[in-house]
């Protein structure tokens, strides 16, 4: 009798153990397990400036995790809180939360690259090289070969924007991507360009000057209007930014203030010595500068300065211009 009781108790305990084990497995799988066996890897994009709670919500919404709590626990145990960065990652619905967490803590294979307005391509190359881990040799090839195959595409067409670029993307294709974005941005203005009978190369040259010379988007139309006035009257533009481009990089950077001696640099980009526009654009302008060239402010001014607060003051005559210099800069 006792043996039967013992046997019965053993089977009860064994059954309870199996049930308990099955419950643990079920709960673990429900909280931490993969959602779909054998699923292919997918691209998961984390936008710039997305905080961690929003990233976790995005993972749940897109079906990579079941429960936010479980992922946050895995992230904590992996020491990953605050370490997930914006970019592109390869993850799969066949991954458990630990695998997803480790992947997102690691290095992204796609990088967000932010290119500000008004940079020359050497500066853009520096940003790309840093973000995409280019060697010095690859960077120099991008500057001197990949972006120099066609004269009209040497400068000015590498549109300033935010890009998501794979670290494995060929540098030449990166150059093409920036060119395509430039084309997309100016295409809506093609009718206006034809209407005004402006060569697109002329448009970009002037826009590149406006981009560097204006203190911001608000005074771009005025700067553009003055540049058009000087061109129409056959006056030298006498723009510092073109001389900065001709001079190249200094210890203070690419765009350090020019000196009197710099105005004598023998270069087709020196608008103190040469009439008309420089040989090519001097930087890569944004859309506001391009719009300003197409829709300039109507003005009788031929000169302008910015005071120490970056407020623009224009003048119709050289005498007025000298007066502005005396009043606002001395």
H/E topology pattern:
HEHHEHEHHEHHHHHHEEH
Radius of gyration, in angstroms, nearest whole number: 30 Å
Percentage of residues in strands:
5-15%
Can you summarize the main beta sheet?
2 strands, antiparallel
Instruction: Give the overall silhouette.
Output: elongated
Strand order across the largest sheet: 1-2
- Helical amount: 40-55%
Q: What value does the average pLDDT take?
A: 90
Number of helical elements: 13
Topology, number of strands: 6
Q: Based on helices, strands and strand pairing, what is the structural class?
A: mainly alpha
| Count of the domains | 3
Would you identify the regions where 5 or more consecutive residues have pLDDT less than 50? 13-28
Task: Give the N-to-C terminal Cα separation.
Answer: 113 Å
Keywords: Cell membrane, Cell wall biogenesis/degradation, Lyase, Membrane, Transmembrane, Transmembrane helix
Pfam families: YceG
Family: Belongs to the transglycosylase MltG family.
Subcellular location: Cell membrane
Care to describe what's here?
- With 330 residues, the chain is mainly alpha-helical.
- A two-stranded antiparallel sheet has the order 1-2. Strands 3-4 form a two-stranded antiparallel ribbon.
- It has 3 domains: 21-107, Dna Ligase, domain 1 (2-Layer Sandwich); 111-186, no CATH class; 188-329, no CATH class.
- The radius of gyration is 30 Å and the shape is elongated.
- It has 13 helices and 6 strands.
- The longest helix has 31 residues, at 2-32.
């Amino acid at each position: 009798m006792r043996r039967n009781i013992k046997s019965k108790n053993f089977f009860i305990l064994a059954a309870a153990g199996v049930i308990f084990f099955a419950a643990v497995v079920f709960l673990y799988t429900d909280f931490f397990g993969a959602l779909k066996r054998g699923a292919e890897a997918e691209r998961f994009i984390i936008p710039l400036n997305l905080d961690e709670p929003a990233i976790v919500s995005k993972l749940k919404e897109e079906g990579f995790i079941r429960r936010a709590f479980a992922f946050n626990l895995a992230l904590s145990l992996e020491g990953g809180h605050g370490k997930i960065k914006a970019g592109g990652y390869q993850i799969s619905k066949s991954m458990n939360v630990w695998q997803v967490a480790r992947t997102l803590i690691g290095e992204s294979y796609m990088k967000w690259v932010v290119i500000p307005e008004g940079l020359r391509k050497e500066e853009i190359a520096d940003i790309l090289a840093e973000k995409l881990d280019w060697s010095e040799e690859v960077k120099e090839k991008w500057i001197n070969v990949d972006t120099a195959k066609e004269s009209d595409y040497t400068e000015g067409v590498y549109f300033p924007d935010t890009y998501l670029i794979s670290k494995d993307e060929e540098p030449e294709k990166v150059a093409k991507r920036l060119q395509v974005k430039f084309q997309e941005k100016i295409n809506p203005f093609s009718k206006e360009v034809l209407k005004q009978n402006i060569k697109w190369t002329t448009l970009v040259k002037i826009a590149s000057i406006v981009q560097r010379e204006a203190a911001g988007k608000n005074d771009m139309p005025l700067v553009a209007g003055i540049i058009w006035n000087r061109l129409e009257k056959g006056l030298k533009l006498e723009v510092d930014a073109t001389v900065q481009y001709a001079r190249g990089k200094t210890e203070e950077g690419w765009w350090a203030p020019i000196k009197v001696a710099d105005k004598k640099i023998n270069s087709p980009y020196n608008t103190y010595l040469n009439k008309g526009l420089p040989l090519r654009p001097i930087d890569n302008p944004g859309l506001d500068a391009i719009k300003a060239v197409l829709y300039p402010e109507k003005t009788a001014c031929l000169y302008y300065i910015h005071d120490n607060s970056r407020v623009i003051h224009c003048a119709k005559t050289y005498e007025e211009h000298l007066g502005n210099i005396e009043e606002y800069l001395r």
